[in-house]
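Thread: zinc ion complex, take 2
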Amino acid sequence: MRPQTALSSEAPLIQALARGVCPICTLMRAFQNSIVESPRCYPATRLCNFHAWSLAGSSPAIEAVPIFRAMFQASKARPGAELTEVPSCDWCVALREHENERLAEFSREMKRERFASWVGQFGTVCLYHADRLSEIVPKPEAKVIQQIVVNNQEDLERQLTELNARLHRGEKGGGSILGHITEFLVSQRGITR
Ligand SMILES: [Zn+2]
Ligand SMILES: [Zn+2]
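Output below.
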């Protein structure tokens, strides 16, 4: 099991940060897991493909049934809806709100010198959340974020080059490096946009 799945969605940012992966992604994943594990706390009448399948496959069935009932009800209420209409997903909306709160928290923490210097030295952040953070933190802190991205990217490019050399020597493996690169480029697995 990946360590971040055990992290509470309300875990302090610093705890998420200490794990060597994007802390915003990590807290979003933890929040998403808590939704899927206890869907009765997150009522929904509209779910996207990813979240409907999570509800069907990973939630306790006894909590999934009322949500599927509510989705049937909601679908009856819109018989004339255009096929092209894409209803938004209630859980995606909840995740966006959680993400915005975590981004704001990160931005507030960046004003504390010790936090900012730790982030500058050891921090990891995915490209998407780096862009989001750069928009909301003040200029000097935005520079720190951009430097983290440059450091992360150089490190991952070096690992990719080394992996390529090993693969050409006939060695097997490399999935975890490709996973880290994917997390950096498009956020952690299952983070919907
Ligand atoms: Zn991220
Ligand atoms: Zn969704």
